[in-house]
Design goal:
- This protein has 307 residues and is of the alpha/beta class.
- 39% of the residues lie in helices and 14% in strands.
- It is built from eleven helices and nine strands.
- The chain binds phosphoric acid mono(formamide)ester.
- Phosphoric acid mono(formamide)ester (CP) is lined by residues 52-55, 126, 135, 259-261.
- Keywords: Pyrimidine biosynthesis, Transferase.
- It comes from Falsiroseomonas selenitidurans.
- InterPro entries: Asp/Orn_carbamoyltranf_P-bd, Asp/Orn_carbamoylTrfase, Asp/Orn_carbamoylTrfase_sf, Asp_carbamoyltransf, Asp_carbamoyltransf_Asp/Orn-bd.
Length: 307
Amino acid sequence: HRHLLAIEGLEPPYIADLLDLAENYALLNRQGKTQRDLLKGRTLINLFFEDSTRTRTSFELAGKRLGADIVNMSVSTSSVNKGETLLDTASTLNAMHTDLLVVRHGQSGAPALLAQKVDAAVINAGDGTHEHPTQALLDALTIRRRKGSLEGLTVAICGDVLHSRVARSNIHLLLAMNSRVRVVGPPTLIPSEVAQLGVEVHHGMKTGLADADVVMMLRLQKERMTSGLVPSSREFFRFYGLDAEKLAYAKPDAIVMHPGPMNRGVEIDSAIADDPVRSVIGEQVEMGVAVRMAVLDVLARNQRRNT
Ligand code: CP
């Protein structure tokens, strides 16, 4: 593959190879070893039209650890503010001979559109409510490290599934790797089309979490909701917030995940988020760097092959 635009459509062996490579990078990162020759002379531009802490920083670290030249384009101070279109911005960056373009955008499909217009390998860092492929890869790597395999696991993805690109990418990846996937949330926050993907739909945490191996909580994305339809945080927490009582429905060794940023006291209780045994949220962030190193490595290698 020339780009990484979505998990949907990726072959399971391609996903498994990316995870294996990321596992190696995770080991090297823990040993403090870098591979600064791998992307020497390559240019990576981070182009984020939406806010980010984890994804942007970890792509920057990943690129630096592999020796790439990195430019973090600040969209808020760019000529986008003067009315320059997405495609004109892309053509400008293309003329600078960018090799890798990491794009986050509020519109679903924006990275795919850019991929048709630029020579660079485009990596989707989250587009609207569509996909966030590197998040699903880092989640899969975290699960695999904790549980040994993805096959046969029951994974409950809980909360605001409707607005979640993380949920969509995870559903595609986990089903491709033969996990059982449940989505859990109020009917207003579960889109009807997810049931057709082959997931179980639950509207209560008791049945949704029953015997789950993995409990993945999602952020309530109030900024994507029209006012009037925004649930109250207190009420949401009462029915869908993960606390010790609800986590007890899952397997005793179930792990707790959250892609971040978290709203403590809304979708997850602080005591659970900070539980040193059950919560793997810190490990997810750590695996984010390793997964992004693997993705940059593979796409740069594919580019070399094609030139
Ligand atoms: N999980 C995630 O995408 O976090 P950021 O928005 O901070 O990048």
